[in-house]
Structure formats: C-alpha cells, structure tokens
Amino acid sequence: MAAGRSFPGLIPWILVAASGCPSNNVGEGDTGFHVAVVDPADGSQEVVDAISPELGLNASASEQTCTTDTVSLVSSTPGSTVTGNIAYTLNFLDDGRKIQIDPEDPLLRGYWYQITVRSGVVGCTDQDGRVILPFASSFFVPE
Description:
Blueprint: H1 12-18, E1 35-39, E2 54-57, E3 71-76, E4 83-85, E5 88-93, E6 98-103, E7 111-117, E8 135-141
Antiparallel strand pairs: 1-2, 2-6, 3-4, 3-7, 5-6, 7-8
C-alpha cells in the first residue's frame, strides 16, 4: 500500500499489517507470486452489494494455503475503528489463477470492505510453494 494512503473507517492494525507492500502489487512486474489484478479495483466507491470480489494471480494458487485464514474480507463503516467479519467461501477458478471471494449474503450498503492476502510462513502460496507478496485493497458499497 502506498505511503500516505488512507481508507476511511479502517482500523489501524489493518493498515499496519499491509504497510510496506507494493501498491497492491498491480503493475509491479512479474517478480514472484503476486496478485496481478483485483476486481473491484482498489479504491472503487460505486460497488454493488451482490459482488463476489476476484483476485487475479500470476501463478496457480495452492488451495491448501490460500484459505479464509490467509485471504480475508472484512467490513467497516466510514469513520469507525470496528471491523466486521464477513461469512464467505473461496472459489478457485482458471486452474487456481483466480480466487473468487464469495460472500454468503449481499454486502452491507454504506460500508468499506478490505481484502487482504497474508504472506510469510503461514501465508498464501502458489502450487510450487512460493509465498505470495503481501496484498491489500479496499472498496466501498454505497447506500
């Protein structure tokens, strides 16, 4: 995430956890396993509540390590430091090169949503065992 970037309503630990990562890894080249594209795009503010966000990867993800423990979706209201957990499942598409985050219910309107992908020893890896680069992105579902 770029320095100085703020996401209204997201609690500081989310921003700290994502600090130091490239600007969403998008356009950062093909050096290592990373998120190449995210839909909806980072910072989108006109997202419909029935969306199932997708992460496009530059290699096939491991379903054993890319789980709801390492790929997360949380919500927060603007100006709040409280986040809410979202019930969702992960679908692996295009031979694991795409992860779809499928919420069980429509997303709440008037909320920001943060997608993060955990890196490191207990993070998401590709099918060859390469650890993914840290990733964070947010979007807003208007009322």
